């Protein structure tokens, strides 16, 4: 369920407070699709509450059913603790999730990619995803095992965005002339962007798997370069107040920063009420976040959300 207001951030902040304790002890203006060639980068925002309330009940129901998110988690055997935590927590809220591993691991089901290089892993994962699921899902979310995501907030953010347009969304970073989506915060591609990517991945001149200077770059930068050749450019995701919703740090780290820079407004200075991801979490912190985001509720308080995103049928989630 989507939380449209302070109730969500209270849960997140409480989860963050628990995360801080664990760390100390243990050491979404309505954005429509814009054709990529009209811009090299811009900020896109989530709908606000009024935008949703203006929709009819039938429109809300249709939209909530139409947004289907496939989750790609890139993992390695050394990530087993995080792998288990992601599997047991937020990934249950994806319409479908699959773990793409550098090698076959008997402990968990995964798609073995048989390479230890992160760029090669990302390429192969996207190619397999497109081949298998291009007709089943319209949005594709890639994350690392240290990322915690609130999938319902992602769906809310994507509510009025057209997946037939080339969206490449997340937390953008500028490196020289290149603007790219930082992998730590999660990467969202529309089906159109994934279609273009699958095509350019076959072009070894524009998007080589190895060799040349591009091979020396981190995988998230290499992805941006390949997408740029297809006319797809990085877009920074923000809520209706202009706050980032994809975060490359944990809640506890963001709270500590806010306590230093905005001591009188820690919550407002920390995070968006509609945050989609947090990164850099330990496995136990993911379970604490799960408690703060999905389980803790004030007794007698009613949530009057305009939309409900139902979990996948038969899923064992919170």
UniProtKB/TrEMBL annotation:
GO terms of biological process kind: protein O-linked glycosylation
Keywords assigned by UniProt, alphabetized: Membrane, Signal-anchor, Transmembrane, Transmembrane helix
Keyword Transferase: no
Gene3D superfamilies xrefs: 3.90.550.50
Principal location listed in the UniProt entry: membrane
Cellular compartments per GO CC: membrane
UniProt-recorded Gene Ontology molecular function terms: glycoprotein-N-acetylgalactosamine 3-beta-galactosyltransferase activity
Protein family per UniProt: Belongs to the glycosyltransferase 31 family. Beta3-Gal-T subfamily.
UniProt protein name: C1GALT1-specific chaperone 1
Lineage summary: Eukaryota, Metazoa, Chordata, Craniata, Vertebrata
